[in-house]
Amino acid sequence: MKITGFHASSGKIRYVTLDGTKKAPALIDHGERPLQLDSSRSAFAQACRNLFVAILADQSPSCVAYVLSMDAKSRDQVAGLILPFGVLSIVALDQGKPVEEFIPANFSKSKLSPFLSPFTDKYAFVDQVVGQPTRKWSNQHRLAALAAWMALP
Q1: Does the pLDDT at position 116 exceed 80?
Q2: Cβ distance 18 to 149 under 8 Å?
Q3: At 81, is the secondary structure helix, strand, or coil?
Q4: What is the pLDDT of residues 131-143, one digit of tens each?
Q5: Which of 48, 107, 142, 143 is 20 to 30 A from 32, alpha carbon to alpha carbon?
Q6: Exposure of 13 in the CB half-sphere (CA atoms within 13 A)
Q7: What is the CA radius of gyration of the chain?
Q8: Between the CA atoms of 65, 52, 84 and 19, what dihedral angle is there, to the nearest 10 degrees?
Q9: 111 near 32, Cβ under 8 Å?
Q10: 77, burial (CB in 10 Å: exposed 0-12, middle 13-18, buried 19+)
Q11: Phi-psi region of 13 (alpha: psi -120 to 50; beta: other; left: phi over 0)
């Protein structure tokens, strides 16, 4: 089952596409795209829609997943974190793709340690279970990978 996971932060959407199962995941692709908050929320939502339509067309997942990190301190930050994933959910619905959502607390030691021992932390877990690409692999990519991995069968 091919799944694309997403994470939003710092004006970027990071995505990671995995295939396989939790016990045997395969890293297919990863990347990031800019997504700057527009003062017009409608224009921002349209930009999100265009971005997600393009990424899903490119990646062709059967399911999408995202992790919502809510460390916002302003209304604009809240909008920049929440609106994209509402739009992603609508795009996925339009394409008949299920959506799974997570928060960082879902990536706890109790959830991850049965798949890797010894468990050190969630970022090291991703590198050991999913692998490390040779280009641009940030902690935000790792969170997107965890969202995708958690949605694998």
Answers
A1: no
A2: yes
A3: helix
A4: 888 788 999 999 9
A5: 107
A6: 27
A7: 15
A8: 10
A9: no
A10: middle
A11: beta
Six-digit token string for 130: 């999913």
Query: Do 6 and 85 touch, CB atoms closer than 8 A?
Result: yes
Decide: 142 and 126 in contact? Cβ < 8 Å. yes
CA–CA separation, 97 vs 134, rounded Å? 29
Over residues 39-78, the pLDDT tens digits come to 889 999 999 999 999 999 999 999 999 999 877 788 888 8
State the Cα–Cα distance between residues 11 and 14, nearest whole angstrom: 10
CA distance 72 to 74: 6
What is the reported pTM? 0.93
Q: Which two tokens stand for residue 70?
A: 């809510």
The Cα-based distances of 49 to 42, 85, 91, 139, 140 in angstroms read 11, 10, 7, 24, 21
The stretch 4-13 carries a mean pLDDT of 92
3-state secondary structure of 108: coil
